[in-house]
Amino acid sequence: MNANNPDIEKAYTKCKAKAEMNGYEIFAIRGVSRCVTSKDGKAVDFKKYGASPYCKTDDQGHGVGIKRGRSNFVYTR
């Protein structure tokens, strides 16, 4: 995947499955395809830095961070 044309649904499906398997309440997609979460998989103050202009969304409303290491598209259950 690349930042110009990321496969957002693939990244979302993969990360969501991992989060659900581990019982996490929160996960994010960083740098187009990297799955990340909080230390314990629970919701934290992810609004601390506000919305990032470095995210890309698809028609389903799913998204990814497109700037390596600088933006996260956060999902919660």
UniProtKB/TrEMBL annotation:
Protein's name according to its UniProt entry: Uncharacterized protein
Organism: Desmophyllum pertusum
Upper taxonomic lineage: Eukaryota, Metazoa, Cnidaria, Anthozoa, Hexacorallia
